[in-house]
Amino acid sequence: MCLTALKAAGFDIEAAEQPSSSNDRCRIEAPVRLKAVPVPFRQGPTVRLTDEPILACRFADQLGHWIGDLVAPLVAGLKNTELKAVRTGPGFECRNRNGATTGKLSAHAEGLAIDISGFEFANGVALRVKPEAGAAPDPALAALRTAACGWFTTILGPGADEAHDDHLHVDIERHGSSDRYRICQ
């Protein structure tokens, strides 16, 4: 049902095979490959996800709507250009949090997380999450990061910890007993 609804909404998405893993706990509920998302306020091209990540369908839904409904309009207003693409990692990755050898499983291991390294604009400019040495933080990136706190349960990026110095990690993993608890750093 999720995949059908997203296709009907204009997402470029397809069913994906369950990624192979030696760890039985690394499983995605309804795995999909997310290629591009629509932008409701504009006619024309969608926003591509350059790495076509494999995600749980319910996370692809949340991520895609954040990109199309919030990131694209914010970029258009702040940068006076259209959002063309979002650079991500693979999505699914069977590992513990922060790549540790022990500890809790990462949200990536269930397809509930993505790492965003940058945004590409129609005018050819790219906004990288990793700040350039000595450069002031880009206000657009700060706005996108803050706005993500209302859409996801975990948002980590440069300054949060060493493991997130070059990307923005967003996920929908539930923390504690409530889906209202957020980690926004």
Give a nutshell description of this structure:
Helix content is 22%, strand content 24%. The protein is of the alpha+beta class and 185 residues long. Strands 1, 2, 3, 4, 5, 6, 7, 8, 9 and 10 form a ten-stranded mixed β-sheet that branches.
Number of DSSP helices? 3
Structural class: alpha+beta
The ordered string of helix (H) and strand (E) elements is HEEEEHEEEHEEE
The number of E-state strands comes to 10
Q: What's the overall geometry?
A: globular
Mean pLDDT equals 90
User: Could you tell me the radius of gyration in angstroms?
Assistant: 16 Å
Strand content: 15-25%
**Number of domain modules:** 1
Q: Mind summarizing the main beta sheet?
A: 10 strands, mixed
Percent helix among the residues? 10-25%
Taking pLDDT < 50 over at least 5 consecutive residues as the criterion, the unreliable ranges are: none
Terminal residue distance: 33 Å
Molecular structure report:
This protein is α+β, with helices and mostly antiparallel strands. It has one domain. 22% of the residues lie in helices and 24% in strands. The chain has three helices and ten strands; from the N terminus they run αββββαβββαβββ. It has helices at 2-8, 57-79, 139-148; strands at 12-15, 31-37, 47-49, 54-56, 83-88, 113-121, 126-128, 154-156, 168-171, 183-184. Strands 1, 2, 3, 4, 5, 6, 7, 8, 9 and 10 form a ten-stranded mixed sheet that branches. A hairpin with a 4-residue loop joins β6 and β7. α2 (57-79) packs antiparallel against α3 (139-148). The chain is globular.
